């Protein structure tokens, strides 16, 4: 999809950076090419940032794992390490290892490889659907509805957000409840970062696709909750994901609004820890995330 400054008649610059066509591009990105029984290949977006986005490689690795698992088993957890920066100019090869096929659980490991070296590793567990105990903490209360909050494009147009956001595709519709961590002049706060998210269009009913889409989206704002606790102004902070874990508690659709509540309990040694929860509009907890990342101040 074009990202030039000249929009077709009847559209705006923001229209070309979001919406169904941009979401379809992401779905295509997650649809890996199968090279062999346990070997897959993925590519990066045409706009090519300086390194592969962590959510992309995590989502693609989960697709590789899921392609080796029976359809009656769904992802319930993943644990991953970001080993080296990914090169967006070349394909990524994903090698899946069939660790265990049990009666109820299936375990897979996936290694992402570029230039002959591992850049990312993922372990994922799949479970056959079962009934059992049910309880959940209540969801956040008093949160504004997503439709009442500005889009990223509207924030950029208002001139109070980072300009680079106006140059990259946005397949995930994000509505921040409060000022994002990267807002110029934002004052640090101990409050969590809360953002409504949904795929910016309609997805198929493929359950694995929805889980992979949420895995992709989970890396967009989680580490930002670390710097949100500090008054950094326009200071250039180097941030990179080190590891990432997710637990999927209940069925959901990634193309419906989910509230992502992100909070950083601690930071030290140029590393920050961030936790997150995804809840539906009716307050149902559907997923939990934890991530540690590099958070390095400029010298």
Describe the fold and architecture.
With 299 residues, the protein is α+β, with helices and mostly antiparallel strands. It folds into two domains: 99 residues, Roll (Thiol Ester Dehydrase, Chain A); 150 residues, Hotdog Thioesterase (Thiol Ester Dehydrase, Chain A, Roll). 15% of the residues lie in helices and 35% in strands. The protein has five helices and twelve strands. It has a twelve-stranded antiparallel beta sheet with strand order 1-2-4-5-6-3-9-12-11-10-8-7. The chain starts with 19 loop residues before the first helix and ends with a strand. 36% of the residues are buried. The N terminus is likely disordered.
Distinctive features:
alpha+beta; twelve-stranded antiparallel sheet; disordered N terminus; 299 residues; Thiol Ester Dehydrase, Chain A; 15% helix; 2 domains
Order of helices and strands: HEEHEEEEHEEHHEEEE
CATH architecture group name of the largest domain: Roll
CATH class of the largest domain: Alpha Beta
**Helix content range of the residues, please?**
10-25%
The CATH topology label of the largest domain is Thiol Ester Dehydrase, Chain A
Give the oligomer, counting copies of the same chain as homo and different chains as hetero: single chain
| Average pLDDT metric | 88
Stretches where pLDDT is under 50 for at least 5 consecutive residues are 1-13
Profile the largest sheet. 12 strands, antiparallel
Number of helices: 5
Can you tell me the CATH superfamily of the largest domain? Hotdog Thioesterase
Strand content: 35-45%
Radius of gyration: 19 Å
Instruction: Based on Cα principal axes, name the global outline.
Output: globular
How many domains is the backbone divided into? 2
The strand count comes to 12
User: Which class best fits the helix and strand makeup?
Assistant: alpha+beta
| Gap between N and C termini | 38 Å
Side by side, the strands of the main sheet go: 1-2-4-5-6-3-9-12-11-10-8-7
